[in-house]
Amino acid sequence: MRHSRAIVASLLLVALLPTLSLGDIPKPPSLSAGGGTKKDKLKTEKLPPCKACTVLVNSFRDGIKRTERAKHDGGDAAWEEERLGSYKTSELRLVEIQERLCTDIVRGEDQCHQLAEDYETQIEEWWKNHQTTQPDLHRWLCVEQAAVCCPDGFYGPNCDPCPTCFGNGKCKGNGTRKGNGKCACDEGYTGDNCDSCSEEHYQAFRDETKLLCSRCHKACAAGGCTGAGPNSCRVCRSGWVMDSARGGCVDVDECIKEAPCTKKQFCVNNEGSYSCLECDKSCDGCNGDGPDLCEKCAEGYELRDGMCTASSDDTGVPEQQMDPSSISSTREGEPHPTELSDGEDPAAPKDEL
């Protein structure tokens, strides 16, 4: 029965093939529009030569860490020590490292695998003969053998020495066979050797080998400053004004000068600016936060002891808090206590008609 069904299915497929077009055949995800997934793009990404070699070396170093074994761990390590010599430099360990080489790479995995094949002879040579006398695989492979990198502190095709950048920048091309060796200065520094302070920074410390630049006070505008604090500003930012008498920038109190807030807000001055905060709900206009700083009381509130509080009747209880049942708690036909005349006793007997 199964053979019959298979024959029928095959005949149907053959019959349908002439009617199918290429557009009817589903494409694998990597071949569909968009050029594949983000992971695929990262895998096939082409890295600069020095970076690619460094990625390969780092993956190899991870393999060395992964396959580390103590001399007396037992198992395979003890067997290797006895039968094949030191496991540390054994062929078996090299194979174990190479089996997973580049599999942990996210960017440039395909390139890493290709370099592993290209440099296979050199890696084996280092493994067997040089890892004890030249333990730095990156220097041996990427700098000396492949000649795609330079040692740290050197740049360009001939690995020329980088400038010091005064400790406040990085040499362009450092560690690679690329770049022009010029300094890329850190924030706050400028100059060919990063030995000057940039605009809006001032010199806080300097000796023959070190320069420390600090940012000017926030009151200072693009003109910079001569030192720390607002008194050292050359030009003031908006919200500050230059004090002609003593020099430097003084904060402008916008709350006094401009009255920028609405009627239901009060103004708080900040350095270089201001904030508008909402008045207390009991206020109809205010000079600050709280019911004691109202210009006048809002509807439903009255001034009592210097504070705007909720309005109340003669009992002293706010109207919105009174119990309605307390108003109609008398017997039918009797007046409410609030309706009695002065001096009249509500418990006194009434004259009969």
Q: Which helices and strands, and how do they pair?
A:
Layout: H1 2-16, H2 38-44, H3 49-66, H4 75-83, H5 91-99, H6 109-118, H7 120-129, H8 137-145, E1 154-155, E2 160-161, E3 169-171, E4 183-185, E5 189-190, E6 196-197, E7 201-206, E8 211-215, E9 240-242, E10 249-251, H9 254-257, E11 265-270, E12 273-278, E13 301-304, E14 307-310
Antiparallel strand pairs: 1-2, 3-4, 5-6, 7-8, 9-10, 11-12, 13-14
Helix pairs in contact: 3-5, 3-6, 3-8
Question: Please, could you describe this protein's structure?
Answer:
Belongs to the CRELD family. Disulfide bonds join 185-194. Residues 1-23 form the signal peptide. This protein is an alpha+beta fold and 353 residues long. Among the domains are: 41-148, no CATH class; 160-196; 256-310, no CATH class. The protein contains nine helices and 14 strands. It has helices spanning 2-16, 38-44, 49-66, 75-83, 91-99, 109-118, 120-129, 137-145, 254-257; strands spanning 154-155, 160-161, 169-171, 183-185, 189-190, 196-197, 201-206, 211-215, 240-242, 249-251, 265-270, 273-278, 301-304, 307-310. It has a two-stranded antiparallel sheet. It has a two-stranded antiparallel sheet with strand order 3-4. A two-stranded antiparallel ribbon has the order 5-6. Strand 9 and strand 10 (249-251) form a beta hairpin. Helix 3 (49-66) runs antiparallel to helix 8. The radius of gyration is 43 Å and the shape is elongated. The chain starts with a helix and ends in a 43-residue tail after the last strand. The model is unreliable at 1-34, 313-317, 320-333 and 336-341 (pLDDT under 50).
